[in-house]
Amino acid sequence: MAKKLTIKPLGTNKSTEKTIPKSSERKIQSDATLPVESATGKNQKENKVVKKKTTPKESKSAKKTTDTTKKETASVKKKATTTKKVMTADSVKPTSITTFTIAFYLKFSTHFGQNLFITGNHPKLGNQNIEQAVPLQYFNANYWKVTIPFEGNEIPKEGFTYHYILKNEDGTIGYDWGNDKKIVPAFLKKTNLIIEDAWNFAGYYENAFYTEPFQQILLPKNEVVNNATKLNATTTHFIRVKAPLLQADEVICLCGESALLNHWSTEKPLLLKREKEDAVYSVQLKMPANQTALPYKFGVYNTKLKQFIRFENGNNRILKPLDTTANALTIINAGFAVLPNNNWRGTGVAIPVFSLRSEQSFGVGEFTDLKLLVNWAKRTGLKLVQILPVNDTTATHTWTDSYPYAAISAFALHPLYLNLKNATLTENVHLLDNIEAQRLQLNALETVDYETVMQLKQSYLQQLYPLQQATLFQSAEFQSFFQNNQHWLIPYAVFCYLRDVYETANFSEWAENSIYKEATIIAMASPDAPQYHAIAYHYFVQFYLHLQLQEATVYAHQNGIILKGDIAIGVYRNGADAWQAPHLFHLNMQAGAPPDDFAIKGQNWGFPTYNWQQMMQDGFAWWKMRFEQMRYYFDAFRIDHILGFFRIWSIPLDAVEGIMGRFVPALPVHINELYSRNIWFDYHRFTKPYINDDVLNEIFGNDADFVRNTFLQYNGFGTYTLKEECNTQHKVDQYLAHWNNDVFTQKMKQGLFDLISNVIFFEEDGSHAQQFHFRFAMEKTISFRHLDAHTQQQLRELYVDYYFRRQDDFWMKEALQKLPALKRVTNMLICGEDLGLVPACVPEVMRQLGLLSLEIQRMPKNLQQTFFHPNDAPYLSVVTPSTHDMSTIRGWWEEDKQKTQQFYNNELGQWGTAPFYCEAWINKAIVVQHLYSPAMWSIFQLQDLLGMDENIRRNNPNDERINIPSNPKHYWRYRMHLSLEQLLEANTFNEAIQQMVQESGR
Fold it and tell me: Among candidates 333, 200, 156, 312, which has minimal Cα distance to 246?
């Protein structure tokens, strides 16, 4: 039952009535997938067809919203719809044939315990429901088969798609990748249809080139032919094949034995055809009835030069009948032509939007500034622009909201990035005069003044709202935007209203509405409610943000550039998502990362961890909606901390430091394992803070007595426990909050934190002292050092097993319950940020799913190496010398002279002593290494590119850093030191980059 909500212009009693479906009605098809590579050869590779998304027309200005964005909104609505269509009896159209059979043959070599099924968006194939999928039967060593009868009126006019499912003996599921296997009425020329299919392994390189950015922006447009699938009545075989990396004038051709295939003639090969919007090349054959086997191969032919270019690699293919049924048409889905598939390489630039500087911006980068960055990328030969998350993080209205990964909504955009001028109608432009002096002042600052910028922008937009709301809200464009996004927009807007009313985003402290109730929220957002305009103001701002980011994306596409976004692993615990759907989160836990060289106490991000079991119940609908929302604006995206889909570092809410966490889920250590190793297990000694006089003297020195008297109680036998008021890190933090913020207080705080974390094990909740998890970096604790040598050695061995052996298969299955289902919902290019303590199973899962990994020179994944060389990167990867979470090339060069020297001699191949500072030629040499990497993408922070030119780069490299992960209160405020306009005029620098990119083959 749809709810009705009216959108009322300000200052009028008239309402425009719209029917708004409930959020729960906006579902996305669930596919829990586990792609597994078949035992068949590469000749049997296959992948999915990409439906080209309509590129909306560019919106020239906010004034022209009503006139110019109709087509854009329509195309976006179409683009954002990723739900698979399910056939019903009412949706089919009759065909000329009344009854026929389809025999599906899948080439796949299985082992004992595996079974294959077929499903699709048709009732006879289970309507994409795994439980209703049709089982295949073993046919021979190479094929599985199923025959299904159809009536002519059961095939819809648009046809239907299908794919295969592999069920393994352990219950895991693998998916045949893609959606390009289809049955259309044009195939029904005969009463029997025989389909020969190849399994499409998601990890095949070619699949990446059928994602939206490649199909629509990056790859050349090949020749297309109308009615390529219109079959002749005499056709016996219809062969379909894909080849994504052909040049503009190239097509696939076919050569083979017999007169039918021109006796292997390369001067007169059979040219395959491709229809517009179709990724598949096809050819029709009339095979003689007495022909039993026909060797053939695919090749490449240049239609402009009328010249045969080459044959595909590998052995000959053999065309031979699998089925001798009379009056049959055989369709062969041959997968990919075996051609070079790793010779496309591109490069890009990475920078947060807030860091952009232009002459027209407002002291911070804005979505409109992306156009200038696109101009520069095009000028220098780059193909990609990567940005950090751009979701709204407004929780406190202070500079702490500058953290871009703490979104109060996974869907709303941040008002920080709105260009005020482009949101202002002509008749209201004079209002900008009142803030022009402040804009110039803010724009002249070296860094972002977050609070001042936000205050001025919000004040101006609140002034603008009553002047433009009536016209805007009545426009078809806004109505369409509202309808498509109301599932998150209404809760977000009400959340923002309540946040400001109660002056806190912590909804647990709200006097009313602390618990989200949909009916109540809909009533609050009613146009007749007194607070309506305070709520609708947020619709107003979000619509203009949507237009401006989308316009920047369209502009990038027009210039051959793709935009790569960033999906944060977490959301703010006091945000709209946690308020609206608390059951999806563990609000009593905090996500973070274990200790490493960059943060020796670990990282505590403060986000609630995900309740994955609950998310699985609705097929990860919330995640799928996030991916769907990304498609509005981005062609590719980076999954922040993809390791969190395997296991997440989970920290209790009463802890402050990341070191107090553990991986969840994880297989615990049972108490019997300790006994079996002859470890004398004392529950309190191993699981509670170990505190005695030696420990106190080591940590606090001369202040040990003060600590004993103030914070501890004596237990006897030389040990102490912390008093109740300070026995957790959170309590210590609160206890000392009123002390002077001086060196002594900081010493006390860190020392008490260290006492609390001085444990060997954390107990598994509910295990009744039977199961435990190791505290990370156990050997560095004083508690461990005070154990006897035998216990130490046994714990070391068990620790290695716990972290590096026993979890791998378990974590792999965890990831494969989530990632395949999420990948199937989008056709964007996906890169996983797989940094940190990487489980051994991660590379294999990334390979299976065809996800791009992230490779960083100074963070090798092989712990036996000091540095990773870009030449060793896998093809499906992104190489980069630095990220926003670390120092730039120049900053790193000055951090550790011993490592710098080693890098200078071994990685750069230079003799002698390394220069103290990173001279421009060194910076350039490192960039060049990455440009020549075999990785699909090399992406550079803008600062690292500027570092190649001493005339352009900053004087102090420490001013180039964006984030310091070890500091949870870091102020994200880095800005370019020169404007984008100045960068565009730096001809010598730009020409040098363009030449480097071109010479590297990117």
Answer: 312
17, β-bridge pairs: 6
Instruction: Give the whole-angstrom CA distance, residue 36 versus residue 533.
Output: 52
- Torsion angles phi and psi, residue 310, rounded to 5: -170, 165
* Number of other residues whose CB lies within 10 A of the CB of residue 293: 9
pLDDT tens for residues 802-856?
Answer: 999 999 999 999 999 899 888 888 999 999 999 888 999 999 999 999 999 999 9
Nearest residue to 280 (alpha-carbon basis) of 230, 336, 226: 336
Residue with tokens 């591109």: 346
User: Hey, how many other C-beta atoms are within 10 angstroms of the C-beta on 587?
Assistant: 16
d(CA 639, CA 834) in angstroms, rounded, equals 9
Give the Cα separation of 64 and 71 in Å (integer). Answer: 13
Dihedral sign for Cα atoms in the order 923, 928, 929, 935: positive
Tell which residue, 267, 279, 297, 307, has the closest CA to residue 222. 279
Q: How many helices (H) and strands (E) does the chain have?
A: 30, 38
Distance CA 980, CA 477 (A): 31
974 Cβ neighbours under 8 A, 6+ residues apart = 352, 355, 447, 448, 959, 960, 961, 962
Give CA–CA dist 16/7, Å, rounded: 6
The three-class DSSP label of residue 17 is strand
Residues 6+ apart with CB under 8 A from 167: 114, 115, 116, 117, 173, 174
pLDDT of residue 96: 54
Determine contact, residues 518/25, Cβ cutoff 8 Å.
no
| Contact predicate 103/510, CB 8 Å | no
Please give the Cα distance from 507 to 521 (Å, whole number). 14
d(CA 237, CA 196): 11
Across 400-472, the runs of DSSP E, i.e. the strands, are: none
Nearest to 668 by CA among 818, 814, 803: 803
Peptide bond into 135 cis (omega under 30): no
Beta bridge partner(s), residue 296? 256, 317
748's CB contacts (< 8 A; 6+ apart) are 703, 707, 736, 739
302-353 residue pLDDT tens: 999 999 999 999 999 999 887 777 788 999 999 999 999 999 999 999 999 9
